[in-house]
Amino acid sequence: MSLPDLPDIEFVNSDPEEVKLNIITAYEAISGRKLFPGDPVRLFLYAVASIIVQQRALINYSAKQNLLRYASGAYLDHLGALVETVRAPAGTAVTTVRFTLSAPQAGPVSIPEGIRVTAGADLFFATIQYAEILAGELSIDLPCVCLTPGVIGNGLLPGQINTLVDPQPYIADIANLTESSGGTDVETDERYRERIYTSPERFSVAGPTGGYEYWAKTASPDISDVLVWSPAPGEVEIRVLMAGGELPTQDTLDAVYGVCNDERIRPLTDRVAVLAPDRVPYDVDLTYWIDSRSATAAMTIQAGVQAAVRDYVLWQKSRIGRDLNPSELTRRVMNAGARRVVIGQPEHQVMDKTAVAVAVNTNVTYGGLEDD
């Protein structure tokens, strides 16, 4: 049974009406006096009941924080500590920056560790090692790490990081050569809860499928789906998919490989390979109509349909091996308020277990209002 399948529970009854009824009934039984609506004593007891309801709500909340399904924040961190599973911290983005001299020098030019560069907006990257541009050389390429953890450091295209914050002798120009990537936010409660729930899998190291899945997800908090299968005896292939259906970078694949191929985790005879899912492109082309009786809400429905299509595209690429399913697209568009929808593309397609369907072109046409 998975966590969402567990029955919902309440440790104490916090229903306001039932609490009020119990207090009024108890008072009338003790005092022998009937309390009518508007009676000052009745109103006073209602105020007492309100305080009791609030306290019961706090009791329920605090008790539920001891259960994995309900725990959040620091309470969830403490539950994770019981099974030696720590919440993944925020990761920093990295990029490669080229430092270029104004002219070749007769001797080496030092570039200290920690020299800052920026693209503006108070976002700084810094060198992570000492380096020298050798005599006669014009430039050197150095790895730099974002000083602000999180996804905020991702996505800076080559050339956007072009300002040297800490001036150095003879350095005339700097520019990043690669898009900054690898920054991650602190692991969310939902993903952390799932890892805690599956953490017993690691006690069998990484032999079982669940073991490899658990360890693969420890490599990055942005990993949303993991496929583990064996294409041949003794071979283990791991495919990872990132949050939002994005394909992993090579740095992420290397990180997963480093974790799952550790000799303390990998069974001796396993040969581990870590790959991105196979990308299967498709197009979305549909036309929809709105019931004429809903004409006053037509603009709202159109916006809802556009959002439904975006959600479908995200849903379709959020799991490895998920079949390309136009029926799901129809359902979402109809639920958004469309009266009728005709799907030109995509057609149903069974995905290989290692593939993920990714939309390339999206064309959504509003056909207008129509009567029954």
What's a concise summary of this model?
It holds the Pfam family Baseplate_J. InterPro entries: Barrel_Baseplate_J-like, Baseplate_assembly_J_pred, Baseplate_J-like_C, Baseplate_J_M, Phage_Baseplate_Hub. With 372 residues, the chain is α+β, with helices and mostly antiparallel strands.
Description:
This protein is extended. It has four domains: 3-64, no CATH class; 94-176; 189-276, GMP Synthetase, Chain A, domain 3, CATH 3.30.300; 279-370, no CATH class. It has helices spanning 16-31, 40-64, 73-82, 189-198, 209-217, 250-260, 298-316, 326-335; strands spanning 94-101, 109-111, 116-118, 124-127, 131-133, 139-146, 163-164, 171-176, 223-229, 235-242, 271-275, 278-291, 340-345, 355-370. It is 30% helix and 25% strand. With 372 residues, it is an alpha+beta fold. Helix 1 packs across helix 2 (40-64) and helix 5 (209-217) crosses helix 6 (250-260).
